[in-house]
């Protein structure tokens, strides 16, 4: 099966009001060889790659995870490569290498914010390696995001998981019944913040909301299985993560269309104690 996308950096838009020269976009670039990895910014997931040892280069827009100007933390966890059954080797390869770079793009010009390279240390075998990398950004916006949410790690884990699973199942039901209005309502807060961080205008609004409607109307078979509950955002965000097979480490909400899978990232938070969970990223 082919994974098409981790859906979707969709946004709900109004005129952003930002001057063109005040629209910096930050990108994370990762090139890995002979290893797997997991990357997060401020404890929010960017991407997890359980790799068979192939050399892979990927890039990710990360503005939506940068709530405002100042210092942020990139965490890069290097893991062993995986076998054909997606099980990790016992230790990192003696030939792994990783290059990472965070780039600021503005007015068609790139400037490097962070650049690091890691490779095998001779004579050292380890099941993983964790790198904590601070970096600074300057942005013309400040988002609330999940930072004022409640600490979900203090809640009853079984009750919380039941609520999270119910949210995922409700989203799947909306897709299965083609309930575009309900899907758009669930995405509203996330989309609003993506709008600001991506500097979208009304034309973008019309185009991408049409794409969301087309996505809802696509004929898919949904799966929600083999998952675990995972906390992010320093305990203020929660999600269901797939634990097996080729989708290990990705969202547990999967949509199957012919031979293609779509992974729907649903990161939830609770704005205030006693309130229902909401989709934030």
Written account of the structure:
Keywords: Signal. By secondary structure, the chain is α+β, with helices and mostly antiparallel strands. The protein has 2 domains: 149 residues, no CATH class; 115 residues. It has 3 helices and 16 strands. A hairpin with a 4-residue loop joins β11 and β12. The chain is globular and about 55 Å long. The two termini are 25 Å apart.
Structural class: alpha+beta
Rg result: 19 Å
Count of discrete domains: 2
Shape: globular
Order of SSEs: EEEEEEEEEHHHEEEEEEE
Main pleated-sheet profile: 4 strands, mixed
Strand arrangement, major sheet: 1-14-13-10
- On the 0 to 100 scale, the average pLDDT is 90
Distinct helical segment count: 3
| Distance between the ends | 25 Å
Beta-strand share of residues: 35-45%
Question: Uncertain spans, ≥5 residues at pLDDT below 50?
Answer: 1-19
Q: Which percent range fits the helix content?
A: 10-25%
Q: Which features would summarize this protein structure in a list?
A:
281 residues, alpha+beta, 2 domains, four-stranded mixed beta sheet, 20% helix, 36% strand, globular, disordered N terminus, signal
Layout of secondary structure:
Blueprint: E1 2-7, E2 25-33, E3 36-41, E4 44-49, E5 56-61, E6 70-79, E7 97-106, E8 109-119, E9 129-137, H1 157-176, H2 180-198, H3 202-217, E10 221-223, E11 227-232, E12 237-242, E13 254-257, E14 260-264, E15 268-269, E16 278-279
Parallel strand pairs: 1-14
Antiparallel strand pairs: 2-5, 2-7, 3-4, 3-6, 6-9, 7-8, 10-13, 11-12, 13-14, 15-16
């Amino acid at each position: 099966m082919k994974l098409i996308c981790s859906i979707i950096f969709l946004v709900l838009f109004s005129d952003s009001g930002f001057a063109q020269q005040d629209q910096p976009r930050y990108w994370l670039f990762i090139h890995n060889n002979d290893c797997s990895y997991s990357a997060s910014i401020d404890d929010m997931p960017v991407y997890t790659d359980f790799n068979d040892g192939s050399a892979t280069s990927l890039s990710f827009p990360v503005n939506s995870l940068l709530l405002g100007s100042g210092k942020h933390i990139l965490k890069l966890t290097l893991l062993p490569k995986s076998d054909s059954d997606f099980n990790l080797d016992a230790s990192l390869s003696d030939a792994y290498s990783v290059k990472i770079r965070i780039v600021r793009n503005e007015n068609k010009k790139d400037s490097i914010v962070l650049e690091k390279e890691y490779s095998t240390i001779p004579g050292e075998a380890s099941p993983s390696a964790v790198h904590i990398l601070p970096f600074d950004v300057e942005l013309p916006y400040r988002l609330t995001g999940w930072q004022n949410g409640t600490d979900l790690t203090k809640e009853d884990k079984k009750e919380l998981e039941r609520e999270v699973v119910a949210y995922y199942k409700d989203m799947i039901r909306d897709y299965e019944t083609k309930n575009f209005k309900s899907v758009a309502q669930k995405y509203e807060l996330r989309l609003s913040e993506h709008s600001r961080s991506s500097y979208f205008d009304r034309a973008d609004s019309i185009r991408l909301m049409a794409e969301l409607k087309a996505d809802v109307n696509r004929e898919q078979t949904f799966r929600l299985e083999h998952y675990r509950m995972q906390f992010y955002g320093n305990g203020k965000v929660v999600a269901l993560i797939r634990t097996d097979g080729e989708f290990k480490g990705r969202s547990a909400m999967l949509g199957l269309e012919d031979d293609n899978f779509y992974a729907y990232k649903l990161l939830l938070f609770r704005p205030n104690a006693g309130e229902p969970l909401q989709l934030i990223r």
